[in-house]
């Protein structure tokens, strides 16, 4: 599966072992660019300057929870697909958080690689579609402004 | 106890993380071997650089697996001391070992949020019911963790003082309000939100320390600074102490 070779995936987990495992799998199976961070604050800094397609974040992290981080990610890049990867047994609070923040997907630890890959790949496609949509809306708005301008000039010419 | 439920939830999390890594790594290693085998069958199809990268990845995953297995083993060792309900008999036991095992169970709860420092002096084996004391230690550690909002520190000390072992657990948490100080050992009292505390932990802890072991439990606290719980346990249990000479 090597679609979107330029896609950028951000992994955030305070457990280095999770970062190593997920990065190894995605590197083996895809051509995506993978960035890993064990500190959410560092991931936020990265997102301030670099476009990202999918963010996969742990839930329980010190100082900044996965939910807080993913909210920040949305502020910085509204189209980014946000995925929560959690092994926390308290599913209820995680689901509540997902509903509050409007995440793209929720994946449980221990995770299934094939499922994670599907979520990441679909997330990349979703981000790309959203960016296209935004760009199309922007083009339409520009075209609309031009048309209004033409309309004004026509009205002025004939009335 | 709700704190036990929460602790178990954290243990599940603590074990799920390394298991997730091991399962994923196993799959990656198998897929890597498939690729290397294919390369051996047709050596020109893959650049050597790629082959080296795959071998290096497998090596790093083996290192991760070792760490992950050690993590699981550590949690399981900690749990073992709680598996036996205790036979109601007093044994010579190392309180340092009991505390170390209990601290392993709190790793998931504290993670990097709370730094735990231990200062175990030269305390001889104590005649006690270790499983019961483990419950007390766990309860006090969980309480200390709940008292700390955000980041903080817990210090566990152990000393021999005369014929007693003195254990103290200090936290840099919110402290106990003056109006609550007289009530905290009462059964049913809790200052925690509904679903977090049952108000039984400290009452049971006092029973275990004072009634079962003939020891003493007390605390010092300062609101906004922290709390220290002290436990005194006789090194030799009173029932089996040498009878006084007539």
Describe this structure in words.
The complex is a heterodimer of chains A (159) and B (246). Chain A has 159 residues and is an alpha/beta fold. Chain A has helices at 16-29, 40-49, 66-76, 91-101, 113-158, and strands at 8-12, 33-37, 54-58, 81-86, 105-108. Chain A has a single domain, classed as Rossmann fold, CATH 3.40.50.2300. A five-stranded parallel beta sheet of chain A has the order 2-1-3-4-5, sandwiched between helices. The model of chain A has no long low-confidence stretch (mean pLDDT 88). Chain B is elongated. In chain B, helix 2 (48-83) crosses helix 3. Chain B folds into two domains: 2-83; 91-240, Histidine kinase-like ATPase, C-terminal domain (Heat Shock Protein 90, 2-Layer Sandwich). Chains A and B meet through helix 1 of A and helix 1 and helix 2 of B.
Give me some keywords for this one:
heterodimer, A: 159 residues, alpha/beta, Rossmann fold, five-stranded parallel beta sheet, 5 helices, 5 strands, 58% helix, B: 246 residues, alpha+beta, Heat Shock Protein 90, 2 domains, five-stranded mixed beta sheet, two-stranded antiparallel ribbon, 51% helix, elongated
Quick structural summary:
By secondary structure, chain A is of the alpha/beta class. Chain A is built from five helices and five strands, in the order βαβαβαβαβα.
Strand order of the largest sheet of chain A: 2-1-3-4-5
Stretches of chain B where pLDDT is under 50 for at least 5 consecutive residues are 194-199
Roughly what percent helix of chain A?
55-70%
Helical segment count of chain B: 6
- Strand content of the residues of chain A, in percent? 15-25%
Topology:
The complex is a heterodimer of chains A (159) and B (246).
Chain A (H helix, E strand, L loop, with lengths): L7 E5 L3 H14 L3 E5 L2 H10 L4 E5 L7 H11 L4 E6 L4 H11 L3 E4 L4 H46 L1
Parallel strand pairs in A: 1-2, 1-3, 3-4, 4-5
Helix pairs in contact in A: 2-3
Chain B lengths: L1 H40 L6 H36 L7 E3 L1 H16 L3 E7 L5 E3 L1 H18 L4 E10 L2 E8 L6 H4 L19 H12 L3 E7 L3 E9 L12
Helix pairs in contact in B: 1-2, 1-3, 2-3, 3-4, 4-6
